[in-house]
């Protein structure tokens, strides 16, 4: 009996990316070690947010690449070393402006949208404080780091100003795209890109791999459409965070058509923060939460996630090849 070939659909995360074909090839190489041709597809929604893709050889700092000295100086000039409160206020203002949302008016009672945005600001603030804590700890600037019961951290080859700039850029750009998804006009358009990338029903087993904000959008598409999916993989996902979960269109649950869901994160990934989906997204027997070590510059990098055995093994098993 002829076995229908599986298809893997990738959904990238926050920030601008290289062109679609090159991005798909990079994900193929990280996950399979080779180009998968038409057996893989990239749901490329960056074009909705950014006028042109990154240059082919530009390393994406949001995916864990290094921050250059020039970028660090530019970030410092933009206020990246302000207090977390000042940084959060500026980031929210930028996110509203880029999403085309008006500034909230002074009134005694908040609108539902303003209240929801305020809840997400709590996540942004927590990300910012944790970024500074990790930046200090990983460069030896946090007193008592060795005896406070915290996660052991490796010292990365970045001076503290560059490390702080990297973390701050991750936080700022992450929230900007999240704001556009939930409060701008990008949510429906991003979900449509994902729907268009899915193969037609009955075309064979489907694997969906979503990173960062892409995992949220992919989840919402599958929850709404109830498409048959053999495996959903979420990487560095914020779906476990209460403030994000509260913005979902439907109550949290495993999408009806998803047979298995693997959620993978690094404990130091600032976007994920929450790391277990099983307590909230039932039925729990269809979800596996896995903790891995992602040693990219910000612990959120997609290539490092895709190379993990916890990700490669279940995907490659469906494709009938060893991990």
UniProtKB/TrEMBL annotation:
Superkingdom of origin organism: Bacteria
Record-given protein name: Alpha/beta hydrolase family protein
């Amino acid at each position: 009996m002829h076995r229908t070939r599986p298809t893997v659909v990738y959904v990238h995360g926050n920030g601008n990316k290289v062109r679609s074909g090159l991005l798909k090839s990079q994900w193929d190489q990280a996950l399979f070690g080779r180009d998968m041709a038409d057996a893989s597809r990239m749901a490329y929604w960056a074009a909705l947010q950014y006028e042109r893709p990154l240059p082919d050889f530009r390393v994406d700092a949001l995916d864990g690449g290094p921050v250059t000295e020039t970028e660090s100086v530019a970030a410092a000039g933009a206020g990246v070393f302000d207090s977390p409160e000042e940084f959060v206020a500026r980031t929210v203002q930028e996110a509203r402006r880029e999403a085309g949302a008006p500034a909230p008016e002074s009134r005694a009672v908040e609108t539902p949208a303003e209240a929801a945005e305020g809840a997400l600001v709590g996540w942004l603030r927590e990300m910012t404080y944790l970024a500074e804590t990790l930046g200090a700890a990983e460069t030896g600037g946090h007193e008592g780091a060795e005896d406070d019961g915290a996660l052991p951290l490796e010292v990365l080859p970045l001076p503290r100003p560059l490390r702080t700039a990297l973390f701050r850029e991750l936080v700022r750009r992450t929230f900007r795209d999240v704001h556009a998804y939930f409060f701008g006009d990008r949510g429906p358009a991003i979900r449509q890109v994902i729907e268009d990338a899915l193969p037609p029903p009955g075309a064979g087993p489907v694997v969906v791999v979503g990173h960062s904000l892409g995992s949220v959008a992919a989840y919402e598409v599958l929850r709404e459409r109830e498409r048959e999916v053999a495996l959903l993989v979420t990487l560095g996902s914020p779906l476990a965070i209460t403030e994000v979960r509260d913005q979902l269109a439907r109550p949290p649950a495993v999408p009806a058509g998803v047979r298995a869901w693997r959620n993978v994160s690094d404990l130091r990934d600032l976007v994920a923060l929450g790391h277990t989906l099983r307590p909230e997204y039932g039925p729990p027997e269809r979800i596996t939460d896995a903790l891995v070590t992602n040693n990219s510059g910000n612990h959120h990098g997609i290539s490092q996630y895709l190379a993990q055995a916890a990700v490669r093994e279940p995907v490659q098993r469906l494709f009938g090849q060893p991990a």
